[in-house]
Amino acid sequence: MNELSSDRRNVPLILYVIxxxxxxxxxxxxxxxxxxxxxxxxxxRIIALVRGSGGIEAQLAEAGHEPEILLDQVRxxxxxxxxxxxxxxxxxHELRPNILIASLPQANLLARLSVMFCKEILFVSFEHNSHxxxxxxxxxxxxxxxxxxxxxxxxxxxxxxxxxxxxxRSPAERTIVPLVSFASQGQRAESIDGTFHIVNAARFTPxxxxxxxxxxxxxxxxxxxxxxxxxxxxxxxxxxxxxRLGIAERVHFPGFVSDWSRYPADLFVLPSRHEGLCIVVLxxxxxxxxxxxxxxxxxxxxxxxxxxxxxxxxxxxxIATAIVQSIENKTGDHAMAGRAARVxxxxxxxxxxxxxxxxxxxxxxxAAQARFRQQDNKAVVx
Length: 382
Hints:
seven-stranded parallel beta sheet, 13 strands, 14 helices, six-stranded parallel beta sheet
């Protein structure tokens, strides 16, 4: 590689690689980091493997960081990976970033392979998932983990689990990066029709387990409705399940709604099998919506029996029992929701998160400058 210019030394180039621009926590988290100043005083380039369902890329462009899309399609398939690897590797070597941050499994694996022998590039693996969707992704993670210089994680629990399950060695640098902040406490919208409104917001995938929540509602002899916000591959199956169970008129599928927590809700239920930070639970907490959830993943870092109705399991019977308990103890649930909102404002308030983002920005710039010094020393020795 050519001698580094003074511009590259003073203003490091960060390349951020992500799967797509679907409406998920990793994607909205990138936007939050951009707006919050994580990449201030740096040159930022963003690459998505595929476009996805779209939306967030327009907001990134408005913030001054129009992303590059390697493959203009909604979904990524395993058969696309070789072609995407060739395109990503080419762009990495053309851009020559000082730091490469990769988010979500496919982008992470392809980015690791693209810089496997480019040791001058500092590689940051952003971990959101403790369990990957496919077995060969997890094998690939372990085999390439030695290339990771620095780990970002959305929660302490995510970091701990990922390092145990998916890394053969633990990188020296590890940072918890909050992916959401709240400028003010929200306000729960009251139900006005006398019906008990249950909500969930998540991408429709098997680990999110929306089917168990539908089955729980079907088993109740109560005046309840269920709204499942989000899109994803198992949405059609869940719609068919609600019809088959005879509750289609009580289960609503409005798609992805960014401000879902503003709409009427008496209880947010999380039936997930695995989670990272779980931004939607934090959104529900901040809005003052009572929550029933298992203490999994990142929830262990900020939730307990004082702020959520804890699910010991995520089967339909356990979920149904929790719903009935919430219906019969609305006063207790509202008090619990008030405590939850205060926890979120303390830990994820805009001021607290902005301070953390400033520290991360300083660390990124310092790491890039340290790499410059290492290259200078090697050049002198040579």
